[in-house]
Amino acid sequence: MSDLFALPYPVLPHELSRYAFLFDIDGTLAGLRPTPGEVQINDTVTRFLAFLSQRRIPFALISGRSILDIDTLFLSHDVPCAGVHGAEIRYADGKCERLAICGSDVAHVWERLKLACMRYPALRLENKLISFAIHFRDAPELAAVAMWTAASLAELYPDTFAVQHGKFVCELRPVKASKGAAVEKMMMSPAFCGRTPVYVGDDITDETAFRAVNEMEGFSVKVGDEETSATHRLKDVCDVHRWLDGLMASAAAGCRVPAQGADKRPS
Description:
Blueprint: E1 19-23, H1 43-54, E2 59-62, H2 67-74, E3 81-83, E4 88-90, E5 96-98, H3 103-117, E6 124-127, E7 132-135, H4 143-156, E8 161-166, E9 169-174, H5 179-188, E10 196-201, H6 207-215, E11 219-223, E12 232-234, H7 237-252
Parallel strand pairs: 1-2, 1-10, 2-3, 10-11, 11-12
Antiparallel strand pairs: 3-4, 4-5, 6-7, 7-9, 8-9
């Protein structure tokens, strides 16, 4: 069994200007909800991102959501981000990249997926145009059905799609997409290059990003108590918000460690 406190609490030893921050969204900056549309970004996150912007400290959002969905959630159209697990990227200068993928394969898989799930109305399908998610949060007893369906389709189109498992979701994502590759590309871009990366995520989808950041000798922060390759840990979304508050308070006070109280692990 994993020990929640086996990994250290993330205390950044240098001034924040030395770092670049990269965040997963759902389960990290915001609590998980039954549907993505119910998720809201709270004031602490909004203030922290504004705090980074004011100090010209680079940050990016790395998500399974599409960039369009990220823009809607954050009420912005210029935040650097990677959507659909890295299949699409928008850099700080506004330049965008998107993985090339066979359009006919995408169309065929979507039709097959709808047909396969027709018997299970409790499964919720999400079409991200180049990626398809099967959500079973409302019907966890259908997890095996969702996973078998995704795996079967991935076997039919192995050069186009791979299965990505997550919390109460499995997804058919472009085979060449990963959050780790997205982090590597983002960190090589002019706005991020030369900084020490800090990546915060909660899910198995974030593990490739953790490993990429570890290779860069950055800070990889796991939210939750599952096994992980991350080097640091926070307990939950509320703990993430407390940590962000502590970073802002410490910076305002001219400190290099979290503000008093923010450096304590939750009991």
